[in-house]
Amino acid sequence: MVFDANAYLGHWFARQIRHNTAAELVALMDENGIDKACVGSLSAVMYRNGQRGNEELSSEIAGYLDRLVPFGVINPAYMDWEYDLDWCANEMGAKGIRIYPQYHDYRVLDAPAHSLCEACTERGLPVTIVQRQVDYRQSHWMVDAPDLVLNDVAQLCADHPQTTFIIIEGLGFAGSRFVREADTLPANSSIEISRSSVFMGKEMKVLIEAIGPERVLFGSGIPMKYPGPALLKMKHVETTEENKQLIWGENLQRLLGL
User: How far apart are the first and last CA of the chain?
Assistant: First the structure.
C-alpha cells in the first residue's frame, strides 16, 4: 500500500490550487498509484477561525473515507481551541492534528504548542508539525512565515516524550538534532520525505540510517506539489525493498492504527 502522509484539500490564500476537491484529489491519487492519503485543510491555515476549514474538510471527504484520512488544523493560540480539538477528534474522526506556528503567531516552544501537545497526548492524537507550507522566497508579500527551526522542533519532541509527532515538509534533518542526537532524543517522531534529497546530500539515506526505516514516511504534498518527485525518490533511494515497503505505507498504517 502507498499511504501519503502529506496531502491537502481546500484553498490557499495566495495562489490557485488544482485538484483540491475530494473527487479530484482521489483521481490524482489513482493516476499516481497512491492508495490512501492524510489530508488537512489548507483553508484552515489562513481562516481567522480555522475551525471553519476543518468543518469544510469533514463535509468534503464524507464519501471518501476509505481513501482520505482527516487531520484537523488547530491553532492553540486561538480562543476555545480545545473545543475545536474535541470536535475534530469526535465529530470529524481526525486521526491526527496539524499545527502551523509560523502562520498562527506563536513559536514552536511557546506555551500554546506545549498545551496542544499535552491535549493531543490525552486524546491519543499525533501532532503533525509543518516546517514550511510554501517556499519562503515565494511567500505572499503581506505574510511573514519563515521555515520552522528543526532544532526547536526536536526540543518540542524531547519535551513531550509521550506525544507522537509527524514532521512534514521538512528539510535539513542531516544537520539537525534529529540526526546528530538520534541516540538520545526520544523515538517519538516520524519524518515525511517530500523535501528530502536522494542524490545531493542523500538526506533520505541519512535519515533511514540515523533514526531507522520505521520512522520514515512517504509523503508528496499533493495537490500543492506534483506527486512525481516523491515517487521517484522512493524508486532511487539507497535502501532495501523491505525498508521501502515500510516507508511506502506500513509505518503510517501502524502509527495511525489503521
Answer: 12
Any idea which residue has 506545549 for its cell? 114
pLDDT of residue 217: 98
Residue 101: predicted pLDDT: 97
Domain hosting 178: range is 3-256
* Residues present in the chain in total: 258
Q: Say which CATH number the domain at 149 has.
A: 3.20.20.140
Contact in structure between 143 and 136 (CB atoms under 8 Å): no
In terms of C-beta density within 10 A (0-12 exposed, 13-18 middle, 19 or more buried), how is residue 30 classed? exposed
Q: What is the rounded distance in angstroms from the CA atom of residue 210 to the CA atom of residue 181? A: 9
pLDDT at 245: 98
Distance, CA of 190 to CA of 76 (rounded, Å): 22
Report how far residue 39's alpha carbon sits from residue 63's, in angstroms, rounded to the nearest whole number.
Answer: 14
Strands, sheet with 3-9, edge to edge from the N-terminal-most edge strand: 3-9, 36-41, 68-73, 96-99, 127-130, 165-168, 189-192, 216-217
Cβ–Cβ < 8 Å for 218, 19: no
Cα–chain center distance at 141: 25
Supply 143's cell numbers.
505574510
176 contacts 154 by C-beta, under 8 angstroms: yes
Q: How many domains does the chain have?
A: 1
- The Cα–Cα gap between 81 and 251 comes to 29
The helix (H) or strand (E) run that includes residue 167 is: strand 165-168
Residue ranges of E strands in 42-150: 68-73, 96-99, 127-130
Q: Is pTM, for the whole model, over 0.70?
A: yes
Task: Give residue 250's pLDDT.
Answer: 98
Instruction: Report pLDDT for 141.
Output: 84
Segments in the chain below pLDDT 70: none
